[in-house]
Write a structure and sequence with these properties.
Elements (H helix, E strand, L loop, with lengths): L2 H35 L2 H36 L13 H32 L4 H34 L1
């Protein structure tokens, strides 16, 4: 058993749990409960606080993904190099997976840079309401894309 390989897979999986778990809980539990129980003005304080507290975990998970993912990719015997991204089924699945991951990260950056700011500093209450809806949509998209990444990972392992 290769302890480094096992550790990389474990850390990669742990980062998955942290990232997807956070956005799934936000989309399915936190945002609906906050919207049902708090006034719009309170959402402008609470949601940015939640995002600020989660940001180190999210960034840490993304960093772990990058490091362990690169290691796992380069150490896999099925990886044939950058010029061979469509040479076998595994490579095609990984290419699609990485495109989905890029979309997932882009949505996360959009949430943190644009949407949370619009919640904290809206021009009006309608703007805040729209921003909270965008946050819910973004979190749902990330959770859905994350589940897709897991499906693609399973497909790659089976190929």
């Amino acid at each position: 058993m290769d302890l480094v390989q096992v550790s990389a897979v474990w850390l990669h999986s742990l980062a998955t749990v942290v990232l997807l778990g956070y956005y799934a809980v936000m989309a399915l539990i936190v945002i609906p409960v906050l919207r049902a129980t708090l006034k719009e003005s309170a959402l402008g304080r609470v949601i940015p606080d939640i995002e600020r507290r989660a940001l180190p975990l999210v960034l840490g998970a993304v960093g772990v993904f990058l490091l362990t993912g690169l290691f796992l990719l380069l150490s896999d015997h099925r990886y044939l190099g950058l010029g061979h991204v469509v040479d076998n089924t595994w490579s095609v699945i990984l290419l699609v997976k990485h495109i989905v991951v890029i979309a997932l990260v882009a949505i996360g950056v959009w949430i943190d840079v644009v949407v949370v700011r619009d919640i904290a500093l809206p021009t009006d209450e309608l703007g805040r309401t729209a921003a909270v809806r965008r946050l819910a949509l973004g979190a749902t998209l990330i959770a859905t894309l994350g589940a897709t990444v897991l499906l693609l990972t399973a497909a790659a392992q089976a190929s």
